[in-house]
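Need residues for this backbone.
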């Protein structure tokens, strides 16, 4: 069974013929009404078609924008993963540097003290609420220190809090005489000046910026 499509042009022709063939006033009026209705419907469908075309173009544009955004999102995720990988490598490097400088600090401090006639085992002290990088006791002498790759004045403030906290919570770990010290490979100038004023032993592997008050 075949179907025949009728265009608006065909409908207009049919209506025109109907109007021309209408003989009575009533038929002509009805034919005119049908013609007006057909014109109204045609205009309406054309307007709807135009709107659909407009929306179709907008949808296509939106689809393209979404596709571009998707590409950018994929690129950003790739960059983010790459950045995380780099940060992970940097973190591992910093951890290694920190561990290396702490080990180096304990070895150098022990050696310097031995040169002064003080034999003391230097280790670290890790407690639930405090960590001391450089720690050692010998008779009535106690070493409490910090080891850092790079240090400024802030390191002195951090160091001062540690003997105070030990005295409050772990007094048995301290001795009558306390030698505060900071070991750093890269001391800031302000740190050196303040360490001199406050009698804090400041040193690195190749140099003592201040001497311990022994």
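Answer:
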């Amino acid at each position: 069974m075949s179907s025949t499509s009728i265009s608006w042009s065909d409908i207009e022709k049919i209506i025109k013929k109907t109007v021309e063939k209408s003989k009575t006033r009533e038929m002509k009026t009805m034919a005119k009404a049908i013609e007006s209705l057909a014109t109204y419907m045609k205009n309406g469908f054309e307007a709807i078609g135009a709107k659909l075309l407009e929306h179709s173009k907008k949808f296509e544009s939106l689809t393209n924008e979404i596709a571009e955004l998707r590409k950018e999102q994929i690129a950003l995720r790739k960059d983010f993963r790459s950045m995380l990988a780099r940060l992970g490598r940097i973190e591992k490097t910093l951890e290694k540097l920190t561990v290396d400088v702490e080990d180096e600090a304990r070895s150098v401090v022990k050696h310097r003290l031995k040169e002064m006639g003080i034999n003391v085992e230097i280790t670290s002290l890790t407690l639930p609420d405090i960590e001391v990088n450089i720690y050692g006791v010998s008779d009535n002498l106690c070493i409490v220190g910090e080891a850092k790759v790079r240090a400024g004045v802030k390191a002195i403030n951090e160091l001062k809090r540690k003997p105070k906290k030990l005295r409050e919570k772990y007094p048995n770990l301290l001795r009558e005489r306390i030698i505060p010290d900071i070991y750093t490979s890269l001391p800031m100038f302000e740190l050196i000046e303040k360490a001199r004023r406050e009698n804090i032993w400041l040193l690195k592997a190749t140099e003592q910026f201040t001497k311990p008050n022994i």
